[in-house]
Design a protein that fits this description.
Order of helices and strands: EEHEEEEHH
Largest sheet: 6 strands, antiparallel
Helix content: 10-25%
Strand content: 25-35%
Number of strands: 6
Shape: globular
Distance between the termini: 34 Å
């Protein structure tokens, strides 16, 4: 994947390390919110992504492409695949224990993904600089070593929790908060 200058970390960017209190390797990661389209179990047509981190900085996840996720007959909609990339990347920045939002997402589609396919996702951070995190993800068909069907590069921006209070439902976020502090 050729990344744009906007999703390429600057030379002074640092690589993240596992943070104290992060979930143990292999522990399932909770959802951002129960009705989140990407990871929420309470969303009727969502991706229902299930994820874990093998090392505290990388996220691996799976989702099964359902009929409600198709674009062309029998194939996953490209926007749904982009949403899956955004979600797995969003789960990886969640490990940094700070709130981030997507600033830019570049997605390359390499192979069609049929309905019924289990897509194996992996996301990692290439570097952090100031409030910016530079990340990548890939989705493989059928197994973690299967053919790459989709790749993404992203720029995520750290925001204050006030961002969610101003633009969302802060009480719901507080009610569904995770085991450790998001913004230490």
């Amino acid at each position: 994947m050729t990344r744009s200058a906007l999703t390429t970390p600057p030379p002074d960017a640092t690589r993240p390390r596992p943070l104290p209190g992060a979930p143990a390797p292999g522990t399932p990661l909770g959802s951002h919110y129960s009705r989140c389209f990407g990871c929420g179990a309470g969303h009727p047509n969502g991706l229902h992504l299930t994820a874990s981190s093998p090392d505290g900085v990388t996220v691996v996840a799976e989702f099964t492409v359902e009929e409600t996720h198709q674009g062309a007959p029998g194939l996953a909609h490209g926007g749904v695949l982009a949403a899956a990339m955004d979600e797995v990347i969003g789960m990886s920045v969640w490990l940094f224990q700070r709130p981030y939002v997507t600033g830019r997402l570049e997605t390359d589609y390499l192979a069609p993904v049929p309905v019924g396919t289990v897509l194996h996702l992996r996301a990692w951070c290439n570097g952090m600089s100031g409030r910016k995190a530079y990340l990548e993800a890939e989705g493989r068909i059928g197994s973690p070593d299967g053919p790459v069907a989709v790749r993404a590069a992203a720029l995520f921006i750290e925001v204050a929790m006030e961002h969610f209070a101003k633009h969302g439902d802060i009480q719901t976020i507080a009610d569904e908060h995770h085991e450790y502090e998001v913004n230490p």
